[in-house]
Amino acid sequence: MVFSVELLDREGGEIRASLFNEAAEQHYDLMQCGRCFTLCNGSVRPAQKKYSVLKHGYELVFDGRCQIHMVDDDADIGAVRLAVQKIASVTQMAVPSSVDICGVIVSGSTLKSFRPKKEKL
């Protein structure tokens, strides 16, 4: 199991965080867009740019040892900065590419497990 979030701090810094296995199962329902959290016991690694649209050179990884708590909103943390594109413009972009889209979710899937192609059995 895995899911990722993009975090923004009060200085405007943005970083991607991925939660794996136990951490994903424990915290998936808690992590809500627009809410503030404290995240403890994560690891730092170089960003995997094929999975992240952020410019930060590093990302955070959390496993079952992590502690994540929702805290009161911090008015000093600004809004996420997006360069929103029209969905129709995606076909004209170079591949691979990063894009910000604003749209209405019309369907979705549940949290699923996956096995990376390079994982040894």
Automatic annotation (TrEMBL):
InterPro entries (alphabetical): NA-bd_OB-fold
Taxonomic superkingdom: Eukaryota
Gene Ontology MF, one: DNA binding
Entry annotated with the keyword Nucleotide-binding: no
Alphabetic keyword roster: DNA-binding, Metal-binding, Zinc, Zinc-finger
CDD domains per record: RPA1_DBD_A
Family listed: Belongs to the replication factor A protein 1 family.
Name the UniProt record assigns to this protein: Replication factor A C-terminal domain-containing protein
Species per Swiss-Prot/TrEMBL record: Effrenium voratum
